[in-house]
Write a structure and sequence with these properties.
Length: about 160
Amino acid sequence: MKKLLLALSLFLSVQLVNAQKTMYFKGEWTKMNKGELFTGVFKITIDANNMVKGELLWTYLATDETNDFLSQHYKGKKGKSGIEFVEGTYTASTHDMYFEGKNKTDPYEVIGTDKYSLKLSADKKVLYGQTASEGTNEGMFYAVQVDGRSVSQQLIAAKLKLKK
């Protein structure tokens, strides 16, 4: 009986691990009709209950030069990065993904946290949609699936660098 319970427990734990899906993406965030641009690599995990957790490694490239505050804030920060940690939900039947930033590692003060309303393509290769962008809903997110090894290495390197 003990062997049967042990085998059943092992089988169920393997099934739970298999039910978790991790995807890796590379993409961009910009703001409608503005010059703001961030590039990034992203690790998104969907568990068996369709709960989403992710790590978004953002790199600042450009800002809206007509905004004096942003121009001053981002002066000298081009190429600097930060990691946004997100949590949310995934609806498999519609491929809708919603998550929001819960925390960040950002010693250069180049990112904020956002709320993301996204769609995962049927083939799971593209993730796209809008972000709340401080309540304006003008944020645009687009990413394509990439090899996980490269993204994992970039995330590890960024975490080590950003801790300093």
